[in-house]
Specification:
heterodimer, A: alpha/beta, TIM Barrel, globular, B: alpha/beta, five-stranded mixed β-sheet, 9 helices, 16% strand
Chain lengths: 282, 296
Amino acid sequence: MATEIEPLSDADWPAGVRLPVALTFEHQSGEGAPLLPGDRPNAMIGGAMQYGARTGIWNILELLDEFNIQATFLVCGATAERYPDAIRAACKAGHEIAGMSYSFDRVRTMSTERERGVVLRTMKALQEVCGATIKGWRCPDYRISPQTLDILSEEGFVWDSSLLNDDRPCLFECSGGKIVELPFTTSTADKTFIGYPYPIRSTPDGLEGIWSSEFDVLYRESARACRLLVLSIQTWVTGRPAPLRSLRRFMQRLVQYNDVQFARCHDIALWSSARALSEKRS
Amino acid sequence: MWKEIPLQRPGQWPAGVRLPIIVSVHHQSEEAAVMFPDGQADPFDYSERQYGGRCGAWRLLEILDRHGVRGTWIICGATVEKYPQISRAVLQAGHAVAGHTYEHEMMCNYPPDRELRLIKKTICVFEDILGVRLRGWRTCFASHNTIDLLLEHCNFEWDASIWNDDLPYMIEGHGRRLLEIPFSSYSDAAWAIQITNPMPPTPYGTWHSNPPEFMLRALTAQFDALYERGAERAVLMPLTVHDFIVGRPSRSSVLDAFIGYAKQHEGVVFATHDQVSEWWLRNYDGHEPVGHKQRN
């Protein structure tokens, strides 16, 4: 059973880095759409989500390329199989490809063996599509099972980002080794505010303001404590032109800070755990 | 049963106090996490709330400290047990504390004997871990027995569980007196997010959240109206924030900005429930202390 060792309050960011920023793009093509009564597929909502796979991800890749920023894509295996070109392009551009189940499989009540099957199938699908061996994971609906971290550790993963309980990376001792948890939050997620059919609560501008004030507070605190900014972004929400402009303005603002570093989750996980792991060994 | 003791003349605050604001910080960490029908906590909801105990409470403490504001920390017994450092830091900083049930039980669903056991258990946790005898209480989801239980079996000076008035009022029953300091729905749990739905979060798996400035506008409207009324009659502004809601970075700026705005107004005083209770008692002839007769 995975146990938390500690929040990594002394994470060792590279010289000159005060606050790492992980843009995590959740990528599916309707696999997570709620089913209609009788377990029928929901073509309307599924279609809205397909926007991300067909078009949104390409818009986002273009934007990241413009800023020369590396990010993390949390991809459903089935989405990668249906729309392989975008995943290959993302991987080729140096972004990290990580897993978000095969077909938005909700693992909370799954048996260990079934959940392991989901992890392995996703790894295989992503490997076949883009050649990458994935090292990171986020559970669909952010509902982890009691054995998720153990399974990930046994299958060679380095990090998970399914918890929402901290501003710092945290280290877990699991059955197969250590896993770095990179907590994120839905309080700044695009789908919390502007992702119809989720309830609409704000506007693209409003979302930019929320990202901005999250950054301001964490940046201020990062002067004297370890902080990490992880944004959860849906390719089907922010991949649309209007929120994309909000993301561009947000990035324009952040790149002006020399000590703010956009980074892939895998890199952040390695920075986070380097000191803790070397101390444990010595 | 109890009766209300009416004031003989309109209540007043001490000279120079035009609008007292009580910031209540609900420090409850993951205690109220939604349970699925299979008896397991919803991992998403649990993790969102746990943020409050691990990070949010510290941020709120820092914001209050930066503004020199003291408020009332309303804390679950189990949260004191799990995160004692934050409760100690709260006391060290001079804030008031009050009990908020043991594990955020919805008391409306409990029989009176169980409710009383949970109240007593919470009182003991504060005494054992923090060495504090509680002066005040805020229940979670009041039952029809809550007030009677507090009067008959406990020694609280004040209760702040009911949303039914703008001003404090004294009640008497079971041979004891208790000051009710009502609170208000102008809280983050109402304006920042929707968490009162007793069902598990939707299959989409996120809370229904409003943008932070939405809550700031509501608080400012509430403040402006009360400040205006405060020129001619006694008013009180209760303001409730939760460690896991406004404790999030983007939402914490709401509290920061609101305090900054309110402080610019003459006669605005940030006070604890303990202070407000002492002030309001002066409106009763004889200044009878309520609850227990002696405090350590």
